[in-house]
């Protein structure tokens, strides 16, 4: 996923993370300076849904405007089907054991 917060904020005339953080605080969401920096400068690993809801309300957008799918990157992560087939054919063959292979008890 691509995180598109800065672009959507710029479309609403918000150019600084401190301004966005202030607007979030006015809406009742306190975000630390470190987390705001992560939201503003990169792609965060975690975004709480209540924070996402307030961000969307402030920017007058939908979550899909902030989270942009990247299907090409997903396809690159998938193993190639031919590679997977050759890997499974290279697996050792397991032979079944028949009968009782237990040792006899001592006399």
Automatic annotation (TrEMBL):
Cited InterPro entries: Cro/C1-type_HTH, Lambda_DNA-bd_dom_sf
Domain HTH cro/C1-type: 4-71
Alphabetized Pfam families for the sequence: HTH_26 (PF13443)
UniProt biased composition (Basic and acidic residues): 72-81
Superkingdom: Bacteria
Biased composition (Low complexity): 84-96
Stretches the record annotates as Disordered: 72-107
Descriptive protein name: Helix-turn-helix transcriptional regulator
UniProt organism field: Streptomyces tauricus
